[in-house]
Amino acid sequence: MPKITYKGPSYRRRLPDNTEIYRGDTREVDQAWVNKHRHYLSKCNKILVEGDEGVTVDEGNDGLPDSGWTKKDISTWLKEKGTTVTGYATKAKLLDKVKATLNPSAPKPVVEEVVPEPKVVEKVVVEETIYDDRMDKTTGDEE
């Protein structure tokens, strides 16, 4: 919940909702109250606003986080999409994670090395029978 604290020189100050706040007094207000009186609070430098979440404005009206979103809303969106948000992250880093979530990098293709098959050399042995005049050419026996 946002808190407002009056730091002005006067003892009290009238707020835009016709209530009064006293110097040094801290009051919890809801986010809707801060959003409604944001213009007044931004002009008055004597009222300190703590815990203001800001206003989320969807620039493209597409439901995707952009620079108009608050860090809290971007983190919630990333968690809904299954992306982990750890440690301190600036709004710019969160928006980079949104881009990475929406456009995941293509997986690197697995390149298998082609091993050339070894060359098989077949040795063909041809058995040659030498015939001389003493051999019977039909059976190969000597006469």
SSE pattern: EEEEHHEHH
- In helices, the fraction of residues equals 10-25%
Describe the biggest sheet?
Answer: 3 strands, antiparallel
> What value does the Rg take, in angstroms?
43 Å
DSSP summary, beta strand count: 5
Number of structural domains: 2
Shape: rod-shaped
Q: Please give the alpha-carbon distance between the first and last residues.
A: 123 Å
Q: What is the averaged pLDDT score?
A: 80
In percent terms, what proportion of residues is strand? 5-15%
Biggest β-sheet: strands ordered side by side in the sheet:
4-1-5
Number of H/I helices: 4
Structural class: alpha+beta
Descriptive notes:
By secondary structure, this protein is of the alpha+beta class. It has two domains: 55 residues; 49 residues. 24% of the residues lie in helices and 12% in strands. The protein has a three-stranded antiparallel beta sheet with strand order 4-1-5, with no helix packed on it. A two-stranded antiparallel ribbon has the order 2-3. A hairpin with a 5-residue loop joins strand 2 and strand 3. Helix 3 packs parallel to helix 4. The mean pLDDT is 80.
